[in-house]
Specification:
- This is 5-formyltetrahydrofolate cyclo-ligase.
- Its cofactor is Mg(2+).
- Its EC number is 6.3.3.2.
- This protein is α/β, with parallel strands linked by helices and 189 residues long.
- It is 25% helix and 25% strand.
- It has a single domain, classed as Rossmann fold, CATH 3.40.50.10420.
- It has an 8-stranded mixed β-sheet, sandwiched between helices. A two-stranded antiparallel sheet has the order 4-5.
- The protein binds the ligand Nc1nc2c(c(=O)[nH]1)N(C=O)[C@@H](CNc1ccc(C(=O)N[C@@H](CCC(=O)O)C(=O)O)cc1)CN2 and adenosine-5'-triphosphate.
- The site of ligand FFO has 15 residues, from strand 2 and helix 4.
Amino acid sequence: MKKEEIRKLFVQKRNQLTEVEYGVLCQKLFCQFRQFDLSEVRCIHLFLPIVKRKEPNTLLIRDWLKVNHPEIKIVYPKTNFTDHSMQSFADDESLVIKNNGYDIPEPVSGNQIPVDQIDLILIPLLAFDKCGYRVGYGKGFYDRFMAQCRPDTQFVGLSLFEAIGKIEDLDEYDMPMHACITPDYLYKF
Ligand SMILES: Nc1nc2c(c(=O)[nH]1)N(C=O)[C@@H](CNc1ccc(C(=O)N[C@@H](CCC(=O)O)C(=O)O)cc1)CN2
Ligand SMILES: Nc1ncnc2c1ncn2[C@@H]1O[C@H](COP(=O)(O)OP(=O)(O)OP(=O)(O)O)[C@@H](O)[C@H]1O
């Protein structure tokens, strides 16, 4: 299948989830996340969920990290829709978060963190394939961001649905993930 078709299908699959089903999948994904080895991670980049689009609830992960891994610095993306870039802001006392025009909770001010500090990125996606490639909302924000990361930064997708067979129309900019966490599995690529 091609990205455009995959996007439509997976937006539909999300919309068809009841609130209860969505909640259960988020809880299961959170349980899988807790099995992930974070021993080498000092700084983690985490998207804040667009709840009305039924994205994985990363607030569960964020709150757990704060209690169980206080040594890990948490940073959030701020998007620039003009050039499709993202900047990262630390979760500290100077952070201010507001919903942007796309209903994404985002930093509006705070301490900016250079991309080379990030050890692991949790990546939003609509669908992913068995080779670790992903389909997002189609603006290339994450592909651009991942291209700027250190070569040893880990890319870890979060998905409420399992892997699909193959994305047919990959391009030169598509960056494969190292792993993807779903409600039932931890895929390693
Ligand atoms: N929570 C979260 N934050 C994120 C992402 C994400 O997927 N989830 N992104 C992941 O990259 C970036 C934001 N990407 C986005 C890309 C498109 C649209 C959007 O609403 N697009 C419209 C079409 C707009 C148009 O074509 O002009 C739509 O889908 O209806 C929203 C966010 C950065 N932050
Ligand atoms: N590093 C890059 N430099 C220039 N263009 C890029 C880069 N990365 C992606 N693009 C372009 O951005 C567009 C959208 O990419 P794609 O369809 O893969 O987005 P996506 O991964 O679904 O979205 P997102 O990353 O925002 O969730 C494509 O035309 C792609 O070629």
